Amino acid sequence: MMRAPAARGGAVAVLFIVIAGLLLFLLVDIAKERVAASLRFQVSADRVTVQGDPGPLGGDFSRLIRDSVILDRTRSIFDPELPAVVRANLERHSWVRRVKEVDRRFPNALAVSIELRRPLGVVRVAAVASERLAVDGEGVVVEEDTKLGPPEIPWITTPGAELAYVPMPGNRFAAGCAVQEAIGVLEELRRVGGHPALDNLRVDEVRVGWTGKERKAGDSDIRLVFDTGVEVLWGRSPRSAAGVTEIPAKIKLDHLSRVQRQYPGLVSVKLVDLRFDRPEVQQVAPRERPGGG
């Protein structure tokens, strides 16, 4: 019976500690809310810095970022959804392949690093002569009504295959379509990198199929048109079903180098067929040559 007051005193102390803890938690929570709501910690769109290699965009990069809706409204830098919102808004733009990083810069700024899509070719839609779509290596339409084209990047034309579906910016051409086959060839050339055969030649156009001739997917009829007017019958795309059977791009270019040694400058050459182990050369008819009769 003598220990009852001490027990009651201990219970009161525990209750006091619990109440003090709850009050402290409440005060901290209120302080956090006030800090988060403070104007000092509010991030607006003009406090977001976007970094990325502009590539072919050049000076238009800043315009692209300025026109993008990076933030729908001013948000607290403590907002847990802030990085996801910025990422989603930027990746909605057709030029942006992905947002690599969103870094909070206290008290009220963000630094964003992005990877832009790199246009690989410009699709000229036969049904609409004025329609020109810049596409990247994945077949995604980066820009419609683009001003890009040779000499920066080549045209892609499909005279032998009507395009059943022309995607809007941000969407991609269907797998297996003629445009994807052309992109596969351009990607193959890009991976090879610099090759002596292309030192004095520039690919200005990739043609898939022949005008007036019905084409099946995967046909061995893709041609490269150089800036000199010489055409190369390249063959199948690595993205076609039978593409694995094709001669590797580097070997084809080695064959082209041998043709160049045989016909310096390719001045009398109209077409080079690189589909086989031994390249075949079609020369310009005498009346077609400069100064010919």
What is the topological layout?
Layout: H1 4-37, E1 42-43, E2 48-51, H2 60-67, E3 75-76, H3 82-91, E4 96-105, E5 109-116, E6 119-124, E7 132-136, E8 141-144, E9 155-157, H4 178-192, E10 203-208, E11 222-226, E12 231-235, H5 249-262, E13 269-273, E14 280-283
Parallel strand pairs: 2-5, 6-9, 9-10, 12-13
Antiparallel strand pairs: 1-3, 4-5, 6-7, 7-8, 10-11, 11-12, 13-14
Overall outline:
elongated
Radius of gyration: 31 Å
Main β sheet profile: 9 strands, mixed
What is the structural class? alpha/beta
Number of domains: 3
Instruction: Please count the beta strands (DSSP E, at least 2 residues each).
Output: 14
Number of helices: 5
- Calculate the terminal CA-CA distance, rounded to whole Å: 131 Å
CATH architecture of the largest domain: 3-Layer(aba) Sandwich
What fraction of the residues are assigned to beta strands by DSSP? 15-25%
CATH topology title of the largest domain: Rossmann fold
Average pLDDT score: 87
Detailed description of the structure:
By secondary structure, the protein is an alpha/beta fold. It has three domains: 4-37; 41-116; 119-288, Rossmann fold (3-Layer(aba) Sandwich). 28% of the residues lie in helices and 24% in strands. It contains five helices and 14 strands. Strands 8-7-6-9-10-11-12-13-14 form a nine-stranded mixed sheet, with helices on one face. Strands 2-5-4 form a three-stranded mixed sheet, with helices on one face. It starts with a helix and ends in a 10-residue tail after the last strand.
